């Protein structure tokens, strides 16, 4: 993989890495008031390592604040209804993780109607118009739909990076087909059922043949003649659930019109706030190594 150019912007799926830290870090970390801060410790270590390795001039971290208030909930009330809301201890730590990012001079993206995916997608779309390429730091397969020829996705924990061709290797569809693919086969993580009886391989095969969900539904009479196991049944399911598939695509498609700053410097890393870092280090009871790393990143 080619080295990252100066015109790259790193867009970090912050919520993913907070959740990972919450599940992976022992619950022995507490702040000065005795509240758990294991997720903050893990997220801070991740952020320090990312900044030390990449030294990005342009970066932003997006967080979710719309688990029940996203525009998708209005379209489809069952959206993400399978997920429990974060417990108060974790909700509190999300706020602290945002504070850490801000104190390090990293722009933070958050909105109550749009999810972190939408904020990343809208930032990528806007910055592409200013000549930037994007590196999306996340393992989430949904982001595949955003990747242009010069963009990458980086699964930081596994050390894996891929571009548009990697999306096809993983899912069997091209980036512009990912939202259609997820609408067809569903996404259990987000409680999107998809079309009954259509799994990942069938969805990929259908999109390979027809190109898009719209073309598939317009030409559904051709489906029984495909060399596809259960083709006749598949066609019947598509006729019955075609309108739902179009609804699901409204859920699986990442929005590109979320309210993000439109200017080229929107994701320019600012000078860190050393006084705020010192205050957070004391309040969160960070150890000497983490304190040293944080101070070096704001000096």
UniProtKB/TrEMBL annotation:
<keyword id="KW-0540">Nuclease</keyword>
<dbReference type="InterPro" id="IPR038969">
    <property type="entry name" value="FEN"/>
</dbReference>
<dbReference type="Pfam" id="PF02739">
    <property type="entry name" value="5_3_exonuc_N"/>
</dbReference>
<dbReference type="GO" id="GO:0008409">
    <property type="term" value="F:5'-3' exonuclease activity"/>
</dbReference>
<dbReference type="InterPro" id="IPR029060">
    <property type="entry name" value="PIN-like_dom_sf"/>
</dbReference>
<keyword id="KW-0238">DNA-binding</keyword>
<dbReference type="InterPro" id="IPR036279">
    <property type="entry name" value="5-3_exonuclease_C_sf"/>
</dbReference>
<feature type="domain" description="5'-3' exonuclease">
    <location>
        <begin position="5"/>
        <end position="269"/>
    </location>
</feature>
<dbReference type="Pfam" id="PF01367">
    <property type="entry name" value="5_3_exonuc"/>
</dbReference>
<dbReference type="InterPro" id="IPR020046">
    <property type="entry name" value="5-3_exonucl_a-hlix_arch_N"/>
</dbReference>
<dbReference type="GO" id="GO:0017108">
    <property type="term" value="F:5'-flap endonuclease activity"/>
</dbReference>
<dbReference type="InterPro" id="IPR008918">
    <property type="entry name" value="HhH2"/>
</dbReference>
<dbReference type="GO" id="GO:0033567">
    <property type="term" value="P:DNA replication, Okazaki fragment processing"/>
</dbReference>
<keyword id="KW-0378">Hydrolase</keyword>
<dbReference type="InterPro" id="IPR020045">
    <property type="entry name" value="DNA_polI_H3TH"/>
</dbReference>
<protein>
    <submittedName>
        <fullName>Exodeoxyribonuclease IX</fullName>
    </submittedName>
</protein>
<dbReference type="GO" id="GO:0003677">
    <property type="term" value="F:DNA binding"/>
</dbReference>
<dbReference type="InterPro" id="IPR002421">
    <property type="entry name" value="5-3_exonuclease"/>
</dbReference>
């Amino acid at each position: 993989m080619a080295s990252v150019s100066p015109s790259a912007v790193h867009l970090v799926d912050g919520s993913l890495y907070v959740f990972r830290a919450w599940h992976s870090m022992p619950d022995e970390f507490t702040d000065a008031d005795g509240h758990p801060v294991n997720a903050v410790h893990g997220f801070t270590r991740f952020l320090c390592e990312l900044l030390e390795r990449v030294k990005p001039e342009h970066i932003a971290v997006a967080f979710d604040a719309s688990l029940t208030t996203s525009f998708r909930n209005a379209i489809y009330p069952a959206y993400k209804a399978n997920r429990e809301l974060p417990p108060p201890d974790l909700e509190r730590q999300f706020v602290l993780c945002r504070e850490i990012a801000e104190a390090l001079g990293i722009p933070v993206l958050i909105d109550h109607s749009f999810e972190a995916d939408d904020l990343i997608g809208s930032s990528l779309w806007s910055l592409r118009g200013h000549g930037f390429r994007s590196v999306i730091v996340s393992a989430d397969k949904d982001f595949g739909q955003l990747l242009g020829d010069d963009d990458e996705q980086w699964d930081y924990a596994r050390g894996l990076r891929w571009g548009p061709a990697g999306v096809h290797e993983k899912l069997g569809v091209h980036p512009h087909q990912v939202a259609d693919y997820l609408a067809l086969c569903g996404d259990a993580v987000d409680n999107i059922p998809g079309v009954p009886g259509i799994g990942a391989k069938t969805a990929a095969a259908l999109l390979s043949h027809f190109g898009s969900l719209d073309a598939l539904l317009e030409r559904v009479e051709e489906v029984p003649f495909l060399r596809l196991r259960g083709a006749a049944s598949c066609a019947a399911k598509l006729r019955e659930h075609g309108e739902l598939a179009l609804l699901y695509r409204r859920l699986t498609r990442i929005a590109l019109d979320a309210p993000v700053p439109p200017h080229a410097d929107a994701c320019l890393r600012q000078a860190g706030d050393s006084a705020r870092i010192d205050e957070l280090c004391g309040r969160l009871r960070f150890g000497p190594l983490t304190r040293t790393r944080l101070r070096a990143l704001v000096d």
